Amino acid sequence: MNAAVISFPGSNCDDDLMHAIGTVLGERVTKVAASATTLTGFDLVLVPGGFSYGDYLRSGAIAKFAPIMPALKAFAAAGGYVLGICNGFQILTEAGLLPGALQWNTSLQFICEPEPLVVANAHTAFSNRYRAGQTVTLPIAHGEGNYYADPATLQAIEANGQVVFRYAHNPNGSLNDIAGLTNAAGNVLGMMPHPERAVEQLIFGTDGLGVFESLKEAIEEGAYAAN
Amino acid sequence: MFKAKIYVNYKPSVLDPKAQVIQNTLRRLGDDNVQDVLVGKYFELTLAAADQAAAEAQVARICDEMLANVNTETFRYTVEELAVAQ
Amino acid sequence: MFKAKIYVNYKPSVLDPKAQVIQNTLRRLGDDNVQDVLVGKYFELTLAAADQAAAEAQVARICDEMLANVNTETFRYTVEELAVAQ
Amino acid sequence: MLQTEMSPETIKQEKPYLQWGLTESEYDLFAEKLGRLPNLTEIGLASGMWSEHCAYKYSKPVLKTFWTKNDRVLMGPGEGAGVIAIGEGKAVVFKAESHNHPSAVEPYQGAATGVGGIIRDIFSIGAKPVAVLDSLAFGYPTDPHTKQLIDQVVAGIGDYGNAIGIPTVGGETKFAPTYAQNPLVNAMCVGVMDESAIQRGQAAGTGNSLLYVGAKTGRDGINGASFASAEFSTAEAADRSAVQVGDPFMEKLLVDACLEVTHQHQEALVGMQDMGAAGLVSSTVEMADKAGYGMVLDLDLVPQREPGMTPFEIMLSESQERMMLCVKAGHEAEVEAVFKQYDLDAVVIGHVTDDGRYRLTQGGAVVCDVPVSLLTDDAPVYHQVGKQPARLAHPAAAFVPAVSDPAATLKQLLADPNVAAKSSLYRRYDAQVQTNTIAGPGGDAAVIRVRGTHRALALTTDSNGRYLALDPAIGGAITVAEAARNLVAVGAQPLGITDCLNYGDPTKPEQFYSLQESAKGIVEATKVLNTPVISGNVSLYNETNGEAIAPTPMIGMVGLIEDLTTVTGAGFQTAGELIYVIGDTAADFNGSLLQQVQTGSVAGRLMGLDLQLEQAHQQLVLTAIRAHLIAAAHDVGDGGLGVALAEMTFALGIGAAVSLALPAAQLFSETQSRFLVTVPQSAQAAFEALAAGMAKLIGTTGGEMLQINAADGRIEEPVAVLQTIWEESLPCLLK
Ligand SMILES: Nc1ncnc2c1ncn2[C@@H]1O[C@H](COP(=O)(O)OP(=O)(O)O)[C@@H](O)[C@H]1O
Ligand SMILES: [Mg+2]
């Protein structure tokens, strides 16, 4: 797998993703500045957590204007795998690559804690290494992770099986306990919890590895099929 | 020179956690006669434009693309020309 | 029933990183005719009160104690009585 | 709106400097050394540079007594932060800073900018900031004002650290009536770097350039250094000109850009320093002073946020997120290009000179021309004489607690906010970003992995105003010992300390006495425990309406773990572990949390501290952990054995049955130098051989109950019940 991690000014989980994919998984990974304009050659693009451009207006609201965004949209439209984590999820919804929006947590407080999640759909490129109904624990660390979509959109999301992770104990007010979901095509995932923070036994356990291993498998199978 | 005054509010159908917290706090502190709270954002942009129509068009675009998230928010604005002396 | 419209803004001498980022982004996107950006908060409170004066006094207190941080922000408000039918 | 500036003669007559904290005799001294009457800018700069915050005029004689060197220390006090070698070519850099006054006035921004400031101290040395800790002290959260203060301080710390991407991994939160009007907000930052890349804040080499980097200068926080060096009165609360606003986004760019310069343009960089207290003047003057040079700055070149700023305002503004670099002549463009990439202002505003003078120009006119040394070395130093307060000379009779129902007392202590779980506060901090956090907040010490090595660092902050109120010398030593105990409990060898010395008005002999005496205790403890002081900060004048806080030195300590498999936690791991207590227990209740809870204050003669015994106990725990003989370890602190045992049950919900030949009241005694450890049965013989009588077997882990049998009473409570009290108390108090 050949991954790109987009680094926006204010991103702060880009290095953690580089470490998880490059050092822990031993896969190819490149940091791409948000000022770049192409993403050719990659088979996975990651949009990291952090506070892009300070997140002062709304989370992700400024990042969607970054020079890299047209390339990201084209990459996604062509079926490339895109994973947005935390601020990355917020950016993808702002950019229209995922439905809905992320509002302030109902407590209006930033929350950092281990969060048990239930795998709602194990048949996606991002979750095929998990079992449906399995509980995995990943850290969350966000102030604006309260997922909202209007009723019609929400219904379509559920009908399509787009929800991949749900909170076991909803920490932030998200509708339908949604912690992570894909687009209708299934090649773009946004999630608030941080799988890249849970890839080493010593640090937080390894419950997050499955996300990256799932992608590796999906990409390698895809590459094989394409040959 | 034109000045745009822009209001961005949550759509009525969207539950706003901020408004909720403010109203709860007011209630707890004894201001329980406050029956409704709306929390919005307010922006002022000062911009040079050829005419009123051009200014309005630009402001509408900036609101739509940047200042409001149209999934959850609505916006309204006024644009007025500033007296030259200013 | 009264409706208060409240504007909270940073004092002019206080650094506002929010406005800064918005203006820089507008400039980068070609909206460089926008010469000044002010970012504020806007609130509407609907409250029952004996009369206009009571409503105003309460709104002023709520602004001072809760809605604005008087160290860094200033506020202004209008209060008007709502028609009974509403 | 340019006003005509007051003439030197008018200044002499009208004495505007008094309101900036400079005394008449200090003015006279300045004028005498200058050889003429200073103008407004010059005397304004003096007020900042000669403030306690910058010149340490009262605390210098005390700070001189600190023990600051051993063979591991690479850089001691005097620079932005201190540096200690940790092996494998790496070094740890750390420092703490207080933001008590700004946080009292504007809690959110005060706390946020405190974090921003201490982070700049760390990367100015060339280190990557890897962790933040916060040490907070408030009044008991009984009134809405205190609740809001706590909420805003925590929000400010969290919002800054979270946004910039440095994990806040630990700290402490204390509650006592003494801090009700004067909260303490201290922050510590820890960085890691290659030993070979240490930067200094110096401006050397005639003709080299002074590069201003970062945010524009505004009228915020003007003369904050003098402000921090003055006592606070509630009548002044209305006068709030000094609010600085933090911009963590800007600081994130600054960290990345400055580290890029230090790593990739090392040959171009002469020195780097952050602009902290007394802003532009203190950073530049200190850089010139350290190198023995002079400088000339053109104020017209300083990036300014507002028009019409006077030299006084520009030089003493404490706008945040600014750095000063000294760059070799000819290399300016190369360094500026790095900052351009990050969209940051980087402007040459002056040059290094060889004449030792500090010269400023504005609009072509010279507005300041004084010797650099006049602003630094010539600052007065006061050799204050301390006086023992009467309450210490004649301590009250020993406190005898009434503990008729030890279970009820235990519950009361678990619910006290000093003991109760702080997770509702620290969960607002991102503790995991950078993915090196092995143990985040909640344990005895935080543990973070050092990337590129096989090592980890353990971090803690500790303070105990209750003990210092009764005996500053012993209390000071205990604070150091307690910090070391917390590190040892997670398996770390203590390396060194930073401090924030939070005290009252040093011009009052009784306050100065506390400062002086506690320094003696700190020095003694650091020598025995081999933990030199490598950096720190002084916050005096913590008084409101003439009432000083309890003397509260905050000790931030860093320890080293050389084997990642030995990281140890405080929670019981399995049923059937043997529980040992290390250290004897006596009727030590003066200054205890129990005394504060039962009587509302502390009094009496403080218990003693035997530093040799302390050292021996710490060594035993560390050796046993390193030999893999220990399953769990916890120091015994506030609330004594009863509280410590309860805390050990909470991690995994594993209970214990313990018998102690002590009066039940002594379950809550705070005798020093004690640990609780658990040992797997398979390691019993090896551990007891090592302990050689220092450890006493008191029970076993297991079950869902905490059972403690004392000589004249017992506790038998479900762990779940105790845990609920402990977890829900603080959120409930803060509602
Ligand atoms: N303000 C805070 N910020 C971060 N962590 C905190 C804070 N307050 C408390 N903690 C965490 O809670 C733990 C318990 O605090 P404390 O009772 O002071 O510990 P100890 O008695 O072991 O020194 C600390 O080790 C720390 O990790
Ligand atoms: Mg401890």
UniProtKB/TrEMBL annotation, chain A:
Pfam family, one: GATase_5
EC number: 6.3.5.3, 3.5.1.2
Domain of life: Bacteria
A GO molecular-function annotation: glutaminase activity
InterPro entries xref list: Class_I_gatase-like, PRibForGlyAmidine_synth_PurQ
Pathway: Purine metabolism; IMP biosynthesis via de novo pathway; 5-amino-1-(5-phospho-D-ribosyl)imidazole from N(2)-formyl-N(1)-(5-phospho-D-ribosyl)glycinamide: step 1/2
Subcellular location per the Swiss-Prot or TrEMBL entry: Cytoplasm
Reactions catalysed, as given in the entry: L-glutamine + H2O = L-glutamate + NH4(+); N(2)-formyl-N(1)-(5-phospho-beta-D-ribosyl)glycinamide + L-glutamine + ATP + H2O = 2-formamido-N(1)-(5-O-phospho-beta-D-ribosyl)acetamidine + L-glutamate + ADP + phosphate + H(+)
Protein keywords: ATP-binding, Cytoplasm, Glutamine amidotransferase, Hydrolase, Ligase, Nucleotide-binding, Purine biosynthesis
Active site positions: 86, 194, 196
Assembly description: Part of the FGAM synthase complex composed of 1 PurL, 1 PurQ and 2 PurS subunits.
Function comment: Part of the phosphoribosylformylglycinamidine synthase complex involved in the purines biosynthetic pathway. Catalyzes the ATP-dependent conversion of formylglycinamide ribonucleotide (FGAR) and glutamine to yield formylglycinamidine ribonucleotide (FGAM) and glutamate. The FGAM synthase complex is composed of three subunits. PurQ produces an ammonia molecule by converting glutamine to glutamate. PurL transfers the ammonia molecule to FGAR to form FGAM in an ATP-dependent manner.
NCBIfam families (UniProt xref): FGAM_synth_I (TIGR01737), PRK03619.1 (NF002957)
PANTHER family per record: PHOSPHORIBOSYLFORMYLGLYCINAMIDINE SYNTHASE SUBUNIT PURQ
Name of the protein in its database record: Phosphoribosylformylglycinamidine synthase subunit PurQ
Protein species of origin: Lacticaseibacillus jixianensis
Gene: purQ
UniProtKB/TrEMBL annotation, chains B, C:
Name the record gives this protein: Phosphoribosylformylglycinamidine synthase subunit PurS
Pathway: Purine metabolism; IMP biosynthesis via de novo pathway; 5-amino-1-(5-phospho-D-ribosyl)imidazole from N(2)-formyl-N(1)-(5-phospho-D-ribosyl)glycinamide: step 1/2
Binding partners and assembly: Part of the FGAM synthase complex composed of 1 PurL, 1 PurQ and 2 PurS subunits.
Coiled-coil ranges (or none): none
Signal peptide: none
HAMAP family: PurS
Family, similarity comment: Belongs to the PurS family.
First-listed, main subcellular location of the protein, grouped into a coarse class: cytoplasm
UniProtKB/TrEMBL annotation, chain D:
Domain Phosphoribosylformylglycinamidine synthase linker: 11-57
Binding site for ATP: 56, 95, 499, 536
Broad EC category: ligase
Annotated residues for binding of Mg(2+) 1: 97, 537
Superkingdom of this protein's organism: Bacteria
Keyword Metal-binding: yes
Catalytic reaction(s) noted: N(2)-formyl-N(1)-(5-phospho-beta-D-ribosyl)glycinamide + L-glutamine + ATP + H2O = 2-formamido-N(1)-(5-O-phospho-beta-D-ribosyl)acetamidine + L-glutamate + ADP + phosphate + H(+)
Keyword Transport among record annotations: no
Pathway: Purine metabolism; IMP biosynthesis via de novo pathway; 5-amino-1-(5-phospho-D-ribosyl)imidazole from N(2)-formyl-N(1)-(5-phospho-D-ribosyl)glycinamide: step 1/2
InterPro entries linked to this entry: PRibForGlyAmidine_synth_PurL (IPR010074), PurL_linker (IPR041609), PurM-like_C_dom (IPR010918), PurM-like_C_sf (IPR036676), PurM-like_N (IPR016188), PurM-like_N_sf (IPR036921)
UniProt EC number: 6.3.5.3
CDD domains: PurL_repeat1, PurL_repeat2
Residues that, per the record, bind substrate: 98-101, 120, 244, 318-320, 539
Active site: 53, 99 (proton acceptor)
Subcellular location: Cytoplasm
Keywords of the record: ATP-binding, Cytoplasm, Ligase, Magnesium, Metal-binding, Nucleotide-binding, Purine biosynthesis
Residues the entry annotates as binding Mg(2+) 2: 121, 274
Domain PurM-like C-terminal: 206-361, 575-702
Similarity remark: Belongs to the FGAMS family.
Protein role: Part of the phosphoribosylformylglycinamidine synthase complex involved in the purines biosynthetic pathway. Catalyzes the ATP-dependent conversion of formylglycinamide ribonucleotide (FGAR) and glutamine to yield formylglycinamidine ribonucleotide (FGAM) and glutamate. The FGAM synthase complex is composed of three subunits. PurQ produces an ammonia molecule by converting glutamine to glutamate. PurL transfers the ammonia molecule to FGAR to form FGAM in an ATP-dependent manner.
Stated name of the protein: Phosphoribosylformylglycinamidine synthase subunit PurL
Phylogenetic classification of the source organism: Bacteria, Bacillati, Bacillota, Bacilli, Lactobacillales
Gene encoding the protein: purL
